[in-house]
Amino acid sequence: MLNKSVFDFLLELRENNNREWFHANKKKYEAAKKNFQLFVELSIEQIKTFDPSVSGLNAKDCLFRIFRDVRFSEDKRPYKTNFGAFIAKNGRKSRYGGYYIHIEPEQCFLGGGCYMPASNILKAIRTEIFHHPEEFKEIVENSEFKKHFPELYGEKLKTAPRGFPKDFEHIELLNYKHYAVSKMIDDSIVNSELFAKEIDNVFKALHPINRFLNEIVQDL
C-alpha cells in the first residue's frame, strides 16, 4: 500500500514549489520517495508474473527525477508535483512499450504503451499494423482492454501518414502519434489496499498491446 506520506508531501510541495522550502523539507521528500520506490519495486514483482520482459529491473531504473528542466520553459517552478515511474525493459528511458504509474493528488493515472516513439519506431508500428490490422484490432477492441482504455491516447493525424495509402480500410489505426493509453485512478483507490489490485487488473489488460509493440521494437 502506498504510504499517506507520499500524498502529504506532494500536496505541500504544490503549495511551496521553491528551493528554500524543498531543502528545508528534504527529509519529507526522501521519506516519500523511499515509500514510492518500494511501491514500484512491489509493482515490478506483480508485473513480471505476466510480463517477464521486466524481470531484472529495479525501481531506481524506472523512477523519474522530481527536478524539472526549466531551461526552455516559461514555467520556472523547480519541481514536479508528482512521482512517476515507467516500468519497461531497460527502464524509464526505454524505447520499449511498458507500464507507467503516475502519483499526483487529483491527477493519478496508470498507463503505458509507446508514448512519443521515435520516428523510425512509429513508422515500424504503423507498417506492422498496416500488414496485420486484424491482429491489432483484436487487441484494442478486446472487452477487458476497452474496459480500462476506451481509446488510444493523444492526437491523431488528420490525413494518412506519409507512405501509406489514403484508402486503406483501417487508416484510423495508422493515424495515431502515440501508441499509448492511460486511465485516471481516484485518490481514494490510490490511498487504499485496492490500488495493488487495480494495478494488476489494468496492467494485465495492457500487456497484449505492449507485447505487440515490443515484438516490433526488438527488431529495430
From TrEMBL:
Specify the signal sequence span.
none
Pfam families in UniProt:
DUF2461
InterPro entries the UniProt entry points to = CHP02453 (IPR012808), UCP028451 (IPR015996)
The protein here is known as TIGR02453 family protein
